[in-house]
Each structure stands twice: as C-alpha cells, then as structure tokens.
Design a protein that fits this description.
The chain has about 180 residues and is mainly alpha-helical. It has a domain of about 100 residues: Serine Threonine Protein Phosphatase 5, Tetratricopeptide repeat (Alpha Horseshoe), CATH 1.25.40. The chain is built from seven helices and two strands. It has a two-stranded parallel ribbon with strand order 1-2. α1 runs antiparallel to α2, α3 packs antiparallel against α4 and α5 packs parallel to α7. The protein is flat, with a radius of gyration of 19 Å.
Length: about 180
C-alpha cells in the first residue's frame, strides 16, 4: 500500500536527518509539497514506485552474475538509466575497492558515464566517480579531462562541499601531465 506524507516546515534547519519531512513518514513514502493529492494520481504514483523497485531488483540480480559480459553491462546500464544516483552508488562501490577487476571497472565507467549524461554533468559526485574509474583503468588523460570538470563544478558549488573530490581531481590532472 502506498503511503503519502506531506512536507512540513523544519523547525531546526540543522536537522538534516529529517530532510524536511515529518518523522512519522515511513521511509518508502511518497512525499509531497501539495495540500491535496488527487486520488486518481495515487495509482500512477504506486505504479511508478513499483516499476522503480522492479528495476532495482533487476539491476541487483544482474550484478550477481559471475562474469560481467558486455551484454550484462549494457543491461545493467539500461535498467538503471533513469536513476543516476543508483548508477553512481553502484559505480562508486565498484571503484572504491582496493583491487577493482577489469570487468568491474568497465561496468563502473559505463554506469558513471550514463549517470553524468543523465544529470547533465552538473553533479560533482558522478563526475568524480567517472574520473576515479577512468584513472583506475589507466585512462589518465580521460580521467584528467573529467577531473577538470569536477574542479569547475566544485568551484560553482563551493569547495567546502567537495574538498576530497577537488583534491583528487587536481592529483589526476597532475598525474596525466607527468605521464604524458
């Protein structure tokens, strides 16, 4: 059954854990700023949530594959295309390991590339994940190119929000210059 919660004003703006919603909202609830939600919209919302959950289940099942063939990588990217946050999370988990497999890096690059395309290249986190995946794949010039975009976006949002990503980007650019 679909739960619907309405946005309530925050009494404490530093209560980030509440994300502006009432504590009584279930975690999987649909949140709304509207005073009234048309009853006919609820089935569409429920269907949309069900579809999202089915796509996530498909992606998770594909990730369990013993080998990540090009066909499986394309299927994972396709199934998660409209969820750049999910793509970035998966890609980051793949590149953040100490030793990433070539198949894992290939999938991480595909997911991060699609996430960057979907979000328009304006999210420093997805750009950073792509730069890390490219760098770990020894594609240092490509990583430096994306790293320059990370720096630009970090400068726009304020470096205090992405210090780690900014400093990593500077290292990747320096590394590309040294190896060229």
């Amino acid at each position: 059954m679909l739960s619907l919660c309405f946005r309530l004003p925050l009494r404490n703006p530093h209560a980030a854990h509440r994300k502006g919603f009432s504590r009584s909202c279930p975690e999987n609830a649909v949140h709304s700023n509207e005073d009234n939600v048309r009853p006919e919209a609820l089935p569409r919302m429920e269907s949309s949530l069900r579809e999202r959950d089915e796509k996530r289940a498909t992606v998770n099942k594909l990730l369990e594959s013993a080998t990540l063939t090009d066909e499986i990588i394309r299927a994972i990217v396709s199934a998660s295309h409209d969820a750049p946050g999910q793509q970035n999370d998966i890609a980051w988990r793949l590149v953040a390991r100490g030793q990433s497999s070539q198949d894992g890096l290939k999938l991480a690059i595909a997911l991060a590339t699609d996430a960057v395309r979907t979000d328009g290249g304006t999210n420093f986190a997805t750009l950073d994940t792509l730069a890390v995946a490219l760098h770990k794949s020894e594609r240092k010039r490509d990583a430096a190119h994306i790293a320059s975009r990370v720096i630009s976006v970090c400068d726009l949002v304020g470096n205090d929000r992405c210090e780690e990503e900014h400093s990593r980007a500077v290292r990747y650019i320096a590394d590309a210059i040294e190896t060229h």
